[in-house]
Amino acid sequence: MKELIKFSLHDYLRSHKYFPPISTFFVLVFVQYTYTPNPIIDSYAVTALIIYVISSWLCISVLSLDPPVQRQIMILHGKGRNRYYISKLLSVWLIAVLLTVYSFVYPIIFGMFAEPVTLTIGFVSFANHILLATLGITVASLFSEALMESPVNSYGGLALTIVLSIAALGIHGALPTALKNITWVIPPAVNTQQSLMNWSGENLGDLSIFPFIWIIIYTILLLILFLKLAKS
């Protein structure tokens, strides 16, 4: 598994396909902190959403990198499709973690906040970034070349899903009561954002943790679904 991850990262860096999503990430984070000072929780909630979008972009890019022959060789070398695809997803996750660290420390180092980041706010905000990065990766996996042959369907389907997930709260509010439960199938990218923006940041016990748990459950379900579909 470790060798597969190292190979995937090396191959991806050599392909230069990382440049569009990574450069877009840096531009968005820079724009986010153009004006100072910024509210800590709200700012981190926004950059977590940026990580969500960029992670999904990275995932679909990494999973489309290997041509069919190379994919089959790596599957045989890696002793199974599950190990091959998990190594790909972990490769993307490691890149996302690095981007998360950057988005977390950048405003602290350059004094973009009006007040110091407390340990409690820092921990919750960092965890939110990681959860949304992981969610973005698993969402994108379902639209990757492993399951969809057409790049138009792949990128178009992913873009539509990302937009729907970001607009989920608005969609929930606009639907009649009888149809509101439909929104449970939409990726819960903004559920934690609402909890964070309603949180004072002082006491961890005042924070609603169900949205965070739901992201974990949803992500696990998507991962299982992707691995099953990829094997068929």
**What is the 3D form?**
globular
Profile the largest sheet.
Answer: none
Structural class: mainly alpha
Uncertain parts: none
Mean pLDDT: 90
Instruction: Please bin the fraction of helical residues.
Output: over 70%
Q: What assembly state would you assign to the polypeptide chains in this entry? A: single chain
**What's the alpha carbon Rg, rounded to whole Å?**
18 Å
Strand percentage: under 5%
Number of helices: 10
Structural description of this entry:
- The protein is mainly alpha-helical and 232 residues long.
- It has helices at 2-15, 19-32, 40-62, 68-77, 81-109, 119-141, 151-166, 168-174, 191-197, 210-231.
- Helix 2 (19-32) runs antiparallel to helix 3 (40-62).
- The two termini are 22 Å apart.
- The model has no long low-confidence stretch (mean pLDDT 90).
Structure summary:
This protein is mostly helical and 232 residues long. It has helices at 2-15, 19-32, 40-62, 68-77, 81-109, 119-141, 151-166, 168-174, 191-197, 210-231.
What descriptors fit this protein?
232 residues, mainly alpha, 10 helices, 0% strand
Strand and helix map with partners:
Layout: H1 2-15, H2 19-32, H3 40-62, H4 68-77, H5 81-109, H6 119-141, H7 151-166, H8 168-174, H9 191-197, H10 210-231
